[in-house]
Amino acid sequence: MKMIIWSAFAALMIAQPFSVFCQDTTWWIDADNSKVVVSGTSTLKDWSAQTSAVTGSMTLDSTGQIKAVDLSFDSNSLDGGRGADMNSKIEKALKSDEYPQIRFHSDQVQPGGSSTFSSTGKVMIAGVEKEIIVAVERNLNNFAATKDLKLSDFSIKPPTAMFGQIVCHDDITLSFDLAFKETAQ
Question: How far is CA 148 from the centre of its chain?
């Protein structure tokens, strides 16, 4: 009987460390070192708006491969750098009152090279969800990506200014510069 108990104990002690390596790991966005920039052009000049109020996580499997990514930020956190009037136009265009967050979720990550991968997921902007493929570059725990989109794909009417004399063009670029860490912030 002692031999059976001792054998079971020994088997448990040997197997236990392996179970730690078989578990998924979650990394969290380091908001202090991350930002999202939305940029585009208008009939007058180029524009951009950015936020560092990004939240989310990345799940890695036991081999360190990325399994899933979740990102979100409040649409009213985008700052166009030209004061409250521009920020108000951004919030109105993104329907921030009705849809307060912009979100991205992916559970389809395909390795590309040693420091690149593609992520297929769904982005939700202004209440409209679209599937996109994003090419991502990785440098240690930092990830950078740029994705061209159209406002019209999300049923967004391009903002205007100066009584309609200045109009944003339909094409926008969404740029991510994200840092992740293993502990939640």
Answer: 14
> Sign of torsion, CA 146 69 78 126?
positive
Q: Which residues sit opposite 40 in a β-bridge?
A: 47, 172
Q: Residue type at 34?
A: S
pLDDT in tens, 81-112: 888 988 998 899 999 999 999 999 999 999 88
Note whether 170 and 152 are within 8 A (CB): yes
Torsion angle, CA of 161/167/173/179, rounded to 10 degrees? 0
Q: How many of the other CB atoms lie within 10 Å of CB of 38?
A: 21
* Angstrom distances, CA of residue 13 to CA of 9, 20, 62: 6, 12, 19
Domains of the chain: 24-181 (2.40.128.110)
- How many angstroms separate the CA atoms of 158 and 69, rounded? 29
At 125-166, the pLDDT tens digits run 999 999 999 999 999 899 999 999 999 999 999 888 788 788
